[in-house]
């Protein structure tokens, strides 16, 4: 996996501090030993210190030197509780509630990132996507100028003539169930930035639909064409076009027929799906039927990087997501 090797190399070049809230979990402990051995990140594991050390011993891995913090007993607990209270008191959170909430490693870890005690967070081997996103949205919040947090997959399709030799960015496949036109525009802009800054691509962004340039009339199509207009107006410097059917986005011959003159159609390498059903189904179709490698979902739009894992992930998957998160922290994307 050439691209992942590149992320590993970058992660090692400027080591970042990544907090893993699921520190007591076996795959996380196995991954931690690998990350330490490879020098990919300075890790902070959250959980009961004795329990984590015993598990590592039983698993036969060396985690000596990795920082372990127990949210229940940490001396930072009150500081983080106060910080969380300040951030959420307008939403009805009391100090007492904040003190209780901060014992949850997901909230504790997110406050660590917020207050600069860690550069990024990776979780999700046990917790759901929502469990990761909620503290992120409440505490880290969006980066300046970004209104909507979303996610992307880097898709590497073997033997593929489309995109950048089979490399694509797909979004949003994991966060926003039914984005408005404004949110869809924001997702397109964030993904173009990700393609440029994280993947060194020259983004050509297709706003996908079941219609190409007015070939069908429907409010679902209207949402995508409105999102395209908004994105183009906000960022005239980016190459964004829509609404486009998938074949018009990828295949030059179809593009010449359906969207003549478009600088994106026929050569798109960034695909923006109209909603989460399309995005999630779309990436899995390509992953399963075309044997594509799917790197993600990686979050974009947070002020600091926090990333999710699949609950079916392997220790190797955790290592890779930590490497990507470390690179996001380096590049501030
Ligand atoms: N971007 C920016 N802010 C957001 C977003 C967003 N995408 N979504 C919610 N917010 C804000 C809300 O406005 C709210 O702000 P406030 O409390 O400061 O006023 C705050 O974040 C928290 O919002 P909640 O209402 O508590 O959360 P909500 O119930 O809207 O849930 C969530 C947000 C968790 C992202 C939800 O939309 C969700 O569960 N999405 C789908 C996740 C999922 O299951 N994905 C499938 C995974 S499959 C796979 O990963 C491949």
CATH architecture of the largest domain: 3-Layer(aba) Sandwich
Question: Could you spell the SSE succession in H and E letters?
Answer: HEHEHEHHHEHEEHEHEHHEHEEH
- Which bin fits the share of residues in helices? 40-55%
| CATH topology annotation of the largest domain | Rossmann fold
SS summary, helix count:
13
Rg, please?
A: 21 Å
Strand content: 15-25%
Largest sheet: 6 strands, mixed
What is the rounded distance between the termini?
Answer: 22 Å
Widest sheet: strand order? 8-7-9-6-5-10
Structural class: alpha/beta
For the record, the count of structural domains works out to: 2
Mean of pLDDT: 96
Shape: globular
Bound molecules: acetyl coenzyme *A
Describe what you observe in this structure:
This protein has 333 residues and is of the alpha/beta class. The protein has two domains: 2-141 and 306-331, Rossmann fold, CATH 3.40.50.10950; 150-289, Isocitrate/Isopropylmalate dehydrogenase-like (Rossmann fold). The relative contact order is 0.16. It has a six-stranded mixed beta sheet with strand order 8-7-9-6-5-10, sandwiched between helices. 46% of the residues lie in helices and 17% in strands. The chain has helices at residues 2-13, 26-38, 49-59, 77-88, 95-101, 105-114, 129-140, 181-197, 219-234, 246-250, 252-258, 276-289, 315-331; strands spanning 16-20, 41-46, 67-69, 120-123, 150-156, 167-171, 204-208, 239-244, 270-272, 293-300, 306-308. The mean pLDDT is 96. The protein contains 13 helices and eleven strands. The site of acetyl coenzyme *A has 17 residues, from helix 7.
